Amino acid sequence: MNTIKGQVELLENKHKVECGWCGSLLHEGAQPASHGICKECLDEQLAIAKTLKKMKLL
Ligand SMILES: [Zn+2]
């Protein structure tokens, strides 16, 4: 579909994506880089979230 939203998504997909936590490259592309999260940092964040949840329960 040739919608504006589709065009924007297409442009965004051409951008470089770096992990906002460790800075590792997730997706090669044009500058400026946008930020995402890599598998390792996602696991870490989920672990932290779990720990915080546990602490509230104690
Ligand atoms: Zn990372």
Keywords:
elongated; 3-stranded mixed sheet; 2 helices; 58 residues; 3 strands; binds zinc ion; alpha+beta
Describe this structure in words.
By secondary structure, this protein is of the alpha+beta class. It has one domain (4-57). It is built from two helices and three strands. The protein has helices at residues 4-13, 39-57, and strands spanning 15-19, 25-27, 30-36. Strands 2-1-3 form a three-stranded mixed sheet. Strand 1 and strand 2 (25-27) form a beta hairpin. The longest helix is centred in the last third of the chain and has 19 residues, at 39-57. It starts with a helix and ends with a helix. Residues 19, 21-22, 24, 38, 40-41 line the site of zinc ion.
Short description:
The chain has 58 residues and is of the alpha+beta class.
Secondary structure topology:
Blueprint: H1 4-13, E1 15-19, E2 25-27, E3 30-36, H2 39-57
Parallel strand pairs: 1-3
Antiparallel strand pairs: 1-2
The chain binds zinc ion (ZN).
**Strand segment tally:** 3
Bound molecules: zinc ion
Low-confidence stretches: none
Gap between N and C termini: 51 Å
Estimate the global geometry from the Cα principal axes.
elongated
* Biggest sheet strand line-up: 2-1-3
Name the helix and strand elements from N-terminus to C-terminus, one letter apiece: HEEEH
pLDDT averaged residue by residue: 88
SS content category: alpha+beta
The largest sheet, given as strand count, sense and whether it forms a barrel, is: 3 strands, mixed
Helix content: 40-55%
